[in-house]
Write a structure and sequence with these properties.
Blueprint lengths: L12 E3 L7 E5 L7 E6 L3 H34 L7 H18 L2
Antiparallel strand pairs: 1-2, 2-3
Amino acid sequence: MKTRFKGTPGPWKICCYGHEYKELVIEKDKKPETRVANVAIQKIFKSLANARLIAAAPELLEALQKTNDLLKDLDNTHTGDSRYADFAIQYSENRKLIEKALEG
């Protein structure tokens, strides 16, 4: 059984409000209970890049999980074929990242 993300479900979006517009807010919708992160605006392009990555997190996690399911299936059908060793390595690395995102 695939472990599910226990946080605020996506998609998340970036809103530009907050105390004197000094932060970018990442949230599901405009309800305080769906706010997932605040990114302080220091250098606007760097702050915006950080906020975009955070906002994309739910979709990135889902894509990584789907990709890993495909890698697992591919590895299982080609067990013993050395040409697929990189897939097994990538599957293991992805699994660790997924576990890191879901632990808690």
